[in-house]
Structures are given as structure tokens and as C-alpha cells.
Write a structure and sequence with these properties.
The complex is a heterodimer. By secondary structure, chain A is α+β, with helices and mostly antiparallel strands. Chain A contains 6 helices and 13 strands. Chain A has one domain: outer membrane lipoprotein receptor (LolB), chain A (Clam). In chain A, 26% of the residues lie in helices and 47% in strands. In chain A, strands 6-5-4-3-2-1-13-12-11-10-9-8-7 form a 13-stranded antiparallel β-sheet. Chain A is globular and about 55 Å long. Chain B is of the alpha+beta class. Chain B has 2 domains: 1-114 and 218-431, 2-enoyl-CoA Hydratase, Chain A, domain 1; 116-213, Roll (Pdz3 Domain). Chain B is 31% helix and 26% strand. In chain B, strands 3, 4, 5, 6, 7 and 8 form a 6-stranded antiparallel β-sheet that branches. Chain B has a 6-stranded mixed β-sheet with strand order 11-12-13-17-18-22, with helices on both faces. In chain B, helix 2 packs parallel to helix 4 (72-84) and helix 10 packs across helix 11 (340-350). The radius of gyration of chain B is 22 Å and the shape is globular. Classes of the chains: A alpha+beta, B alpha+beta.
Amino acid sequence: MRSKRSFRIGVVLAVAAGALCAADDLPKGEAVLDRYIEVTGGKAAYSKLHSEITTGTMEFKAMGLKGKLTGYALEPDKRYTEIVLEGIGKIQEGSNGEVAWGMSAMQGPRVKEGDERAESLLQSKFNPDFTWRDLYKSAETASVEQIDGKDCYKVVLTPKTGSPITKWYDKQSGLLTKMALTSKSPMGEIQSDSAFSDYRKEGEITVAHKMVTHVATVELVMTVENVQYNAEIPKDKFEIPEEVKALMNKTAK
Amino acid sequence: MNRRILVVALVAGAVAVAGQPLTPAERNANIESFEQVWKTVRDKYWDPRINGLDWQAVHDELRPKIEAAKDMDEARRVLNGMLDRLKQTHFGIFPGDIYRDLDSTDSKDDRESDEANPGIDVRVLDGRAVVTGVEPGSPAAAHDVKPGWIITHIGKIEVAPVIARISKQFKDSTLLDLRLSRAALSRLQGPTDSVVHVDFWDAADKEVSLDLTRARPRGKLTHLGNMPPQYVWSEWRKLRPDIGYVRFNMFMEPEPLAATMAEAMRGCQDCQGFVIDVRGNPGGIGGLAMGVAGWFMDRAGVQLGTETLRGLTVNFVIFPRPQPFRGPLAVLVDGSSASTAEIFAGGLKDVKRARIFGTRTAGAALPSVIERLSNGDGFQYAIANYVSQGGKPLEGIGVIPDEEVRLTRKQLLEGKDPVLEAAIEWIGRQK
């Protein structure tokens, strides 16, 4: 009886000791995230940013479907993205800190609600890597994993609302190499994996210029062509389109 | 970004490149393409068990055949033979020649098209190829070809034996009507300004022989990724002062289609009912089924069905437009309504938003994409299974109308459209 109990206690202690060791070996999540800021430009450089205009391309390679992407972001929480896909037309998404919406010729206007709204509002925060402490309640380094042959810290970020996001940072360079998240919408829960590469400087900030995202069996490649920081953005870029307002008015009634 | 269309059916017979011996480079490209097709099915087919097939054994059996293929036709037969083992629609290889125009540096609008036709729509009714529509202003209209005429010969081909062979081959398939009409339509198609000789029987069963010029099809030539270019149009009108009617030949080009829908809604705000005609519509962009449905749905959260990919389930949710039409909605279908057209009609029937009129649809409703292969050919493959909101797949079953109404030659000759008339009568009975 005693020997059995001792064995159990021994197992529990061994597991606990292992966990402690693992935790001791790994840097804290916040250290990994702070290092990312340092290696991509530093706090001082990030502090100078107030707006951002990003242009790029996107391609569903297997389908031969290509498009152009333009994103506008303004601190503290305004974002508008416009994608024009050949044969599909314009797809717009926006949020202003309160309302998150989408609109396309294919689906028409829609106002995001629930988890989808929470995710969009979170993603529309300006400079989220720099201000992560305001957005996430925790950042835990879970393990070291190999991504494309490189050791990476796996960090799980838990937002104040919504699902956790997992990010992998290169142990050596400190750069973000991969991100996994689950997006919720009326169309279902969609899990995606994105790989980041081709880091180059845009002004004082080092930016990943290539992002390859996999959703189930579909691959999407996004390429950044240009990032303009602190450029003036016309205010109407963040206005809610009339069609979306009509939908909001209808819901309000 | 899912896209649905029976591309293989549409281009079948349109292009033929046979008999040219392969160069070593072409043979290698075919072998590479074989591996690409085989791996794609292995890695992306929604059922990881590949319908219980021993997929490795299929590879090992067919690999020597692709290595030994003497010309492109034989290579394509091997590739299609591999895909046929899946027994599903939306899997197929089509010749790279159809990309000729896409790959050229000419302006898109100036490109030649092998889809030119004399302006005739055809269905096979009671074993005979019958003209069901004549495009106004087309070469066929200029020669006074009328709905209800029977086509007996296209070029040197006698149509009746072709119909008999296809009817036998597809007698138990929901694809029968689609295959029959495509067999006639593909023979009428050809390069712009070429001439096709067609023998008809007119209303009095008198033989009429005409040399018909093939004209550029109606609509705008559109391009969507690797999908072969398609001519797309949409239209709306009032059938009566109180009934709106919308028709479009494919679920493509979202912006012009949305403009047509918006105009129809504005012009028919006080209408008693609406008719959406997707007869002969082979599908297109899957998301547009939800998009068009949004003009007729005022409740949030309603879905047309569910798509299942490997590792992902997508709800086909309808997002209501700000001011949708709430009155009676009739959807017209036939055996040539396929893919997205079936998802649209089947889903609206299942959620009891529309009443469906016509004949059973093609039962070919799998979400698919098209890739280019190393040998230049196109490879269409389904990436997901689809189940309509009623709980049944549409593949191999199709949409069964609430009111089955069949076209007859007699009614066509009288200038009638019994399917449309049934829909109008039903709308008239609704309060």
C-alpha cells in the first residue's frame, strides 16, 4: 500500500518536475513577443507609427486565381481592406472599433456579429504586435517545435475575447515564421495555417513580404509589394458603406 | 472561393488533337501530369479512403500505360480512366488547346472563341433534338429557325443514332438530359464565322437545310482563374406588371449579376412574385448560389446546404440583402441545370423559400477547382462533397421539382413555355 502510494507520488513529482524544467528552459511568452518587436525595428520605431497603407497581391495558385489587395489601418482601431479578384470583383472588409462589416458583389453586405465581430475588432487594432498586452490576456510559450528545419518557440496567445492564436517564432532570428488560428463565422469554424517569409525592411520596420496560408486543401499566397507608414488616409476609407448601413438600420428596426 | 462548373462536359468534343506522336519532352510532361493528378486525388479528395479504392494499386496499374501512351489522346484517356474510377462528376482532363486564347497576348475581347454558335438552344425531347430557343438577332433567327423544329443532321452527323447511343449509355443516370443536349450543342459550336450545315424538320415536318454561320455567343467573355473563358449574360424583365423574371446563363461575373438583380428588385418592388430561370444553367461560382438567394431571404442564419472538404466543413449560409423580395418565388430547372444551379434550387426548395418547376436537374453538384498540368492540359477535380439542407446530396440525385412540367414539341411550336406558364399560374394563386 505504502509502496504503491509512494510510486504515485513519485510519478506526480516527476511529471511536475518535468513541467518545471520545461517551463524553466523556455523563455516567457512576453519575452518572445518583445524580442520580435526588437528584431523587426524596436519599440522606438514602432512608437512612431500611426497609420499604414499596404499594397500587395494574392493568388489561389491551384486555381490560377489572382487579385490585388490594399489595406488601410489607422490607430487605434480602424481598418479597411479591399481585394479585387479577377472574375470575382471587389471584396471589402472594414471595422471602426465598434462595427465590423464585409461586402462583396457575390454575397452583398453583411454586419459581423458574435465571435466573428470580436475577431475582426481584435485584428483591426493598429500595430497589434506592439500593443499585444492590451489585446491578449496571456501569452504562454508552450514548447520548441521545428518549422522548416528551424527551432521555433510556440507561443499561445489568448485574447480577452475569442479563440486563442498560436504563433511560432524562430529561436535564432526572433522572427515570426508561422501562425495558426481558428476563425468563426456563420459559414463555420475555419482553421488556417500561415507561413511568413521574405522579411525585408519597409522604412524602419522589417516586414514579412510573403504569407502562404493553407485552409484545408486550399493554398493562398499573399505578397506584400509596398508598405507606407504614416501616409495620410482619406477619412472616407473608414466610413461604413450605405448598403451596410441599410442592413444595420433594418436590424435596428 | 469555391467554383463549380461542368467544364469537362462543356468543352467535350470542342477540341481534338490526335495522332501526333509525342516528343520525349511531351512524354515526360504526361508522366509528370499523371503523378500530379494521382497525388492530387490522394491528398485532396474529401474522403481520405478514396471511396474504398486501392489508390496505390490504381497508380501501379496505370503508370506503365501513361509511359507507353503514343499520343496526347491516349495520354488523356489514361488520365481520365484513372479519374473515372472515382465515379464522380467534376473530375476530368481537358485539352490544353482551350487555353490558347488565354495564354495569348491579344486583348481579351479580340480573342477567337470555339464557342461560337448559330444562336440555337437544344434539348432532346422524346428522343429527338428539338430547338427550344432561338437567340434574337442570331444567324438562326435570320434564317427564321423556330422553337419546336427538329434537328436531324449537324454537318454530316445524323443526330438520331448519337441520341440513341447516349440514351443507352446513360439510361440510368441523372446526367442523361445534360449529355444529350451537350451532344447536340457541342456539334453546333465552332470557331467564329465558320459555317455549320444543319438539317431540320420544320413545324410541318418538312425538311429544311440551312448553312448557318456561327456567331460570337451572347454576353461578355469572362475569365476566372484556370476555368476556360465563358460568355456570360444576365437579364430581367416583367412577365406581367406584377411578376418579375430573372435569367442568367451561368453563376459567374458577380458584379454584373448583382447589378441585374438590384435593378430587378428596384423595378419590381411591388410585384406579387418572382421567377428565376436556371434552365440550361451549368453552374459557376458556388458562392453565388448564396449570393443570389440573399435577394429573396429576409431571415439571417438560413443555409442552402453544407460542403465538406478534407478537414473543413463550410455552411452555405444565405446573407439577406437589405431589402429582399419576400413574395412567392418560383425557380425553373431542367436536366441541363447543374452544379451551382442545383445548389441554389435545391437549397431554396429545402428551406421552403421557393417552389421548383420543370424537370429533374443533372445531379452534378460537387465543388471543384481547375489546375493546369505540366503537359498544359486542364485538370478539373472536386474538392468537396455537398449535401443540401434537406439532408441529401445532390450528386447523382439532382433536384426533383415540386411541379414536374415537361416541354413538348407541340407546345414549343405553339410558342408556349409550359414550365414558365405553370410558375406564373402558381404565383397567381398565392395571396
